[in-house]
Amino acid sequence: MSVALEVAAHEVAALQVEDLRVRYGRLPAVDGVSLRVEPGQVTALIGETSSGKSSLALAAARLLPRAAAVTGTVLIAGRDLTALPAREFRRQRAGMVGYIAQDAMAALNPVLPVGRQIAELFGVHRGMSRAAADEQAVRELARVRIDRPGAVARAYPHQLSGGMRQRVMIAMAMALSPPLLIADEPTTALDVSTQAEILSLVRDLQAGTGSGILWITHDMGVVAELADWVAVMYAGRIVEQGPAAGVFGHPVHPYTEGLLRTRRDLRAGRPGTPLYQIEGSPPTPSADRRGCAFAPRCPRRTVTCTERRPELVTVKASHESGWLAACHHPAQQGAGS
Amino acid sequence: MTAPAPQARPAVAARDRVGDGGSHDGGVCVLGFEAVSKYYRGVAALDQVSLVLTRGATLGLVGESGSGKSTCVRLALGLERPSSGRLTFDGTPYPRGRRRQRPLRRQIGFVLQDPYDCLDPRMRLRDIVSEPLRIHRMGGRDTDQRVGRMLAAVGLDDAPLDSYPARYSGGGRQRIAIARALITDPAVLLCDEPTSSLDVSVQAQIVNLLLEAKRSRDLSVLFVSHDLDLIGRVADTLVVLYRGRVVESGPAAAVRARPRHHYTKALHDAVPADHPARRVLQARTGLPPASGAPAADCCVFADRCPAAQARCRTERPPVVREADGRSHACFFPLAWPTDHGQTDHGQGEISS
Predict the structure, then answer these.
(1) Which of A241, A320, B175, B331 has the largest CB neighbor count within 10 A?
(2) ipTM of this model?
């Protein structure tokens, strides 16, 4: 017991999710997910439509509507915020978890200058005076590399470009230096050159703060640029997770393999020739799924796959601790890919 | 299931009398933009853009938001008229007026970005896919069979004709949109970001379907995208648009591997890595933000360009054509060691 406590004191995860389940009515969106985000690291959560990645993120930040039934444990910096009453939680959330949404235009208040919106945080949570909070907001905007932060602070969201709005969101999410940042596809709607700036900005900021980041995306390129750890979600479950470099080199689950191969082929395939494609479509949520959800699209499926659901287990022969995959026929490590 | 064989199109006759936009680099120009400009409230969305889509080719139009890609698509579809310059189809200028444009519109199929937006949720599959036939008075008793054959050709073999779009996923809807685009057996297919709102695992299927349709139906394709990887993979010729101007064009492989224009290079450098061990984005990758609307007599990229000099801000760079079919609009273009010949022009000026 005391040993466990000691270990915990040394390595309190920025986010620790245990057996999280989210249901909308009968339909499961997140179906028993366990995941850690270490402080100072980026965990990328990759998945497609209805994989449950956004539900997981919203559940972790306790932002889901009441209609969603959530069970499981969510520890942020070792604290179980789900146990707090709603009002108390709202008071503490901004200091514990920063949330960067995909659509900054929808997330920001359209009738308040962005500087004021950031300053509010310092007023409410740090008890700063209005003038001091406004000044602090300008400094926060400068931190996310906005030129002329003083002028931008007085601007309304609609007067800013998409990239600028996303920077404002990042400034806001990081303002109170929370131990955990959750970013839900923040660069998906941006141009590639803007995306590049945002990604390098986040990497630099994180190096200075030591926050843990849960970065949700569908883009393997973004994962390659940012992630230390990658978790691949499919139909509400994690099908593979492990160190980013390892997973990119030797993916174990056929879905991970397919995603990486799709991207590689897009970049390096001979122009005009057919692209490598994963067959079929992502599954729709289903309450009574048997076997592996990826089986209908899987090149390695056997009868076992359609009958028995594969457990998420340690990848054999892996030297990296914590590398897991849920597949009856995992790719052999070191066999190349 | 085979689709109806593409007939010898009546437009072939028209193709013989190509006008001045006709023959280009050994190919026949099917769809041409000749110095096309389009102004919205005095702001140039397109500024002197010339494009040549040759018969049987795939022309890739790449650019970020605000580059004018979508304006090009709207003009090509005849939804808008250029403020100056002209568009040609088979060497003949686009006629004025919707009714007179109809025969031309029949020759241009289109697939747009958002399959959730561009299919009427209250229409049945039969009506969606056969709508172009009704508009162009090409329908007949065999319409249902044609629709069925078309749906089979796009991989929706057992889609009930009286089902609604809601039943289909993003990829399925995009297949429906492709079936609708191809049912009039057009000569040209316009694809405006056809996969950017689809799941990654479905994108390749749709691109492959488009490539296959192009091959089997002898289509000429204008493919518009912001994704340099994707467009380099599907297009023969690449045109890079920036703030309404063509900054560079040429054979896709050459433009991707050895960009001339600094904007093309910046786009290229912004593409994320393919492996965590080879991260490419540096702390200052990317470009300074654009300042307000650019003046007419300067390079549109000058305010963000790492190699910009005084001249770039006071003079509009002319389009320079090179021997290998490439062209660029830059006073100080990038030169590459592998370039054949002594094309080190500009290199000295950059470093000076």
Answers:
(1) A241
(2) 0.87
